[in-house]
Amino acid sequence: MSQLVKSLRADLELIASMVPEGARVLDIGCGKGELLSHLRSAKSVDGRGIELEPERVNACLAKGLSVIQGDADQDLANYPAGAFDVAILSQTIQATHRPKLVLEQLLRIADTTIVSFPNFAHWRVRLSLALSGRMPVTKRLPAKWYETPNIHLCTVADFYDLCTNLSAHIENAAMVSNSGKSKKVNAGSSWTNLAAETAVFRLTSG
Which of 47, 15, 13, 14 shows the shortest CA–CA distance to 33? Predict the structure, then answer.
C-alpha cells in the first residue's frame, strides 16, 4: 500500500478502492482535496469537486484540482444526467438541508454514487446518550451540538430506508470501525446498525 493511501482517512481509503481506473468523478464536499488528489495520481481519474468553504476551495486549486465553490443542496441540479461515472458524498449528507433531494440528484448525474456518513446508532453513541443524557461527542461526531455542521444525523437503518424509498440499488455496503478497519456488511441488518461507526454505501439508480 502506498504512503499516499495510508495518509487518507479510513473511509476515504475505502471509497478510493471503489472507484474504477480513469473514471469521471465528482466529489461533493471535497474538503481540501485529499481524495481527489489521491484518485488523480493513483487511478488517473478525470476528477471534479464541489466545496462550500472558500479556503478549502483555494487549497484544492493550489493542488491543481478542478474544484468550484458550490452548495450540494442547490448546484447539483445544474449537471446533466449521466455526466459522471462516479459521484462521491463523503461525510457530507448529514450536513445538507435536503438529503433526500441531494441523493436523488447524485443518482441522476452519475452511474454510481458512493456515500459515507457517521452512524448515529453506533453502540458508543447509544451508550453515551443513555448514560449522559446529552448529545454524544465521539471521534466521528466531535463537535458540541451547538457547534456541529450536522443537521440531519441518521443511522444505517435510516439510510437503508431512504435508499429503498428512492429505489436505489445497494451494490455493496461496508463499515469502518473506530480503529480504521473496514469490512463489507449486510446493510439491512440490525447488527450493522449497531456496530458501524462509519458506513459507506455504493449505489446505482434502480
Answer: 47
